[in-house]
Amino acid sequence: MSPNALIPSHRKPRRPSASSRALRAGVTGGFLTLAVTGATVPANAAEKPVSETQEMPTITTALATSAARSADTAEQVAFNYERQALQDSAFSHAAKAAEKHKAEAVKKAKAEAKKKAEEARKAKEAAEARASRSSERSTLSAPSSSNATGSTATLVSFLKAQLGKAYVLGSSGPSSYDCSGLTQAAFSQIGIDLPRVSQDQSTQGTQVGLDNLQVGDILYWGSAGSAYHVGVYIGDGKFIGAQNSSTGIVERPLDYDMPTGAVRVL
């Protein structure tokens, strides 16, 4: 045994280097920090604060925060896109519905216009048909000028044949007449039926002025609709009528007893 075997050693124990401490600190904190040194750090060298070894966690937290913000931004962008898509879809549906309603309204308006046009066409055709039938009836019923001339000649001839016959109230021939009975009998010779009394005869046909008389016009005394006497104009300013019981049936000038008015039935 060496004589110094039991003598305690006076050498100081070797302190771990700074790189060793940094390595242990890094491992303990959950991160591996590699330090490259060119020489052994003296034992009495000051140790660096532990905060220098925590730089990596700080950077990692910043990156995580940035990633979280990026995720929020991406989510907001996706939400905006989805909302815009929903709005576009709603606008598209609304536009299609409006277009459909417009098309239906236009179709309905065209149908209504077509219906009204058809009704107007039918009404026009009906009016034209009525006018045509009325014209045909007028043509058939209206005598020609030659027929009118022949009718008035027959009428005047009959009236002159009655001159001198007696006036009898309420009589209509053939031997005696009153004023309206004579005119009724005269016009029946040419196919025209007149009412029996003077009041009704004064409203037949068309009212004419006394300055525009034609042969065959019925003259009346009193007012139209309430006349008390009638006669027949025979031309040249003269008329024939059953005047009264004293004179009987006579031919007289208009100024003998000027009538109130006249009607034309020929």
Description:
The protein is α+β, with helices and mostly antiparallel strands. Among the domains are: 18-48, no CATH class; 146-264, Alpha-Beta Complex (endopeptidase fold (from Nostoc punctiforme)), CATH 3.90.1720.10. Helix content is 48%, strand content 13%. The chain has helices at 18-28, 55-141, 145-161, 179-188, 198-201, and strands at 166-167, 176-177, 206-208, 218-221, 229-235, 238-244, 248-253, 261-264. The strands form 2 sheets. It has a 6-stranded antiparallel beta sheet with strand order 3-8-4-5-6-7. Helix 3 (145-161) packs across helix 4. It is rod-shaped. The model is unreliable at 1-7, 25-41, 50-54 and 137-146 (pLDDT under 50).
What keyword list fits this structure?
266 residues; alpha+beta; endopeptidase fold (from Nostoc punctiforme); 6-stranded antiparallel β-sheet; 8 strands; disordered N terminus
Strand content: 5-15%
Secondary-structure element order, N to C: HHHEEHHEEEEEE
Report the strand count.
8
* Contiguous helical run count: 5
| Cα shape | rod-shaped
Any guess at the CATH architecture of the domain at 146-264?
A: Alpha-Beta Complex
CATH class of the domain at 146-264: Alpha Beta
Helix content: 40-55%
As for the CATH topology of the domain at 146-264, it is: endopeptidase fold (from Nostoc punctiforme)
Mean pLDDT across all residues, rounded? 78
Largest sheet: 6 strands, antiparallel
First and last CA, distance: 184 Å
Low-confidence sequence ranges? 1-7, 25-41, 50-54, 137-146
* Structural class estimated from helices and strands: alpha+beta
CA gyration radius, whole angstroms: 67 Å
Let me know the CATH homologous superfamily of the domain at 146-264. Answer: endopeptidase domain like (from Nostoc punctiforme)
Tell me the strand order in the biggest sheet.
Answer: 3-8-4-5-6-7
